[in-house]
Write a sequence for this structure.
């Protein structure tokens, strides 16, 4: 049978026309879908910048519906849910991302990190721990270890916290010695509470090894020795603390005086306390000196000069313990000065709308520009 080339000449233009028409229809659909998604995305971004989170979430949901394969929209939506406290919805969004087979390694790590943050914010610490541990060896490794450190501290898992901080320090992330020392101090206190004196001593030794200059291990070692009945050992620890960190020594000044009396080292303790007071004056040291002298703080000769130099309510209260027959005009003036200083911050007006404080009354708040937002009474009267 002879082939008619006339049909070929007719079919070629026809096929070309059909193909062109089909491509135009597909192109219009693609353009329509791609234009709808960015519009919804930019609308959500604009609403977010205007702090309209509810409407922004609706816009992002619309954008995801138009283009469900866009990971950035999912991340934006999940982060918004987390910021609003809708942790369950945030978890669903990020778990949906992790369930996608076409997700790249970088985006998968990012979704895993976002999921761990969701669990952390929701207070699901066990699931957050697992999610953060899954990020080991990824670009989020350091960030996840820091988050785990905070998680262990919040859940009071001090041994895991110490191990995590030590691992971070080995990687060069930063210096965590002082933080590790606190972890071991907490473990020492737990051991001491169980009656495990050896365990407490071992933990304190590790704390001092982690941060030799930290004051807390010395303070706790002295307290442990004092509770064990060894006043001399307690004084040795606290004397070292006094020389290393005079400010922290205030915390055990009263116990120091008691241990000195028990060890018959009153004169040495008095000299040490006088020296400490000269470096960092404080009522705790004056109380310890009064304790050594076996007299109330109110009768101490050093109380009035201290109150004149450092007017505080605590000092004024101690001075008020003096018998009325021993009062002088100088004592009364010192008390008045201390009370006036303490009352000054409370003799202010505070805006009920924004919290702006001022010494004089304003009808219009200088902070938020609201009218009649200042209650016409001082803070101490509210």
């Amino acid at each position: 049978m002879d082939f008619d080339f006339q049909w070929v000449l007719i079919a070629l233009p026809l096929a070309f026309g059909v193909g062109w028409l089909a491509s135009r229809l597909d192109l219009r659909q693609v353009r329509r879908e791609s234009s709808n998604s960015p519009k919804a995305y930019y609308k959500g971004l604009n609403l977010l910048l205007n702090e309209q989170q509810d409407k922004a979430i609706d816009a992002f949901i619309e954008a995801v519906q138009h283009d469900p394969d866009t990971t950035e929209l999912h991340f934006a939506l999940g982060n918004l849910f987390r910021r609003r406290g809708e942790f369950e919805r945030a978890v669903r969004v990020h778990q949906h991302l992790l369930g996608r087979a076409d997700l790249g390694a970088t985006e998968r790590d990012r979704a895993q990190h976002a999921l761990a943050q969701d669990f952390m914010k929701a207070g699901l610490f066990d699931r957050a721990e697992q999610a953060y541990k899954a990020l080991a060896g990824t670009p989020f490794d350091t960030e996840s270890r820091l988050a785990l450190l905070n998680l262990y501290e919040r859940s009071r898992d001090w041994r895991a916290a110490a191990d995590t901080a030590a691992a971070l320090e080995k990687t060069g992330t930063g210096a965590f010695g002082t933080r590790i020392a606190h972890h071991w101090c907490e473990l020492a206190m737990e051991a001491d509470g169980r009656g495990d004196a050896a365990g407490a001593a071992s933990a304190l030794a590790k704390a001092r090894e982690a941060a030799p200059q930290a004051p807390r291990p010395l303070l706790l070692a002295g307290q442990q020795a004092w509770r064990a009945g060894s006043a001399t050992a307690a004084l040795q620890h606290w004397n070292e603390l006094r020389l290393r960190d005079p400010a922290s020594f205030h915390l055990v000044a009263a116990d120091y005086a008691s241990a000195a009396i028990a060890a018959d080292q009153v004169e040495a303790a008095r000299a040490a306390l006088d020296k400490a007071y000269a470096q960092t004056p404080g009522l705790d040291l004056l109380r310890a000196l009064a304790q050594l002298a076996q007299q109330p703080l109110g009768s101490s000769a050093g109380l009035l000069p201290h109150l004149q130099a450092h007017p505080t309510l605590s000092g004024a209260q101690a001075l008020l313990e003096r018998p009325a027959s021993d009062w002088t005009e100088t004592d009364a003036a010192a008390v008045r000065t201390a009370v006036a200083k303490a009352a000054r911050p409370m003799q202010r007006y505070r805006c009920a709308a924004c919290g702006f404080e001022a010494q004089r009354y304003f009808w219009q708040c200088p902070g938020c520009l609201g009218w009649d937002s200042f209650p016409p009474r001082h803070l101490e009267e509210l």
Notes: The beta strands are 349-350, 357-358. The longest strand covers residues 349-350.
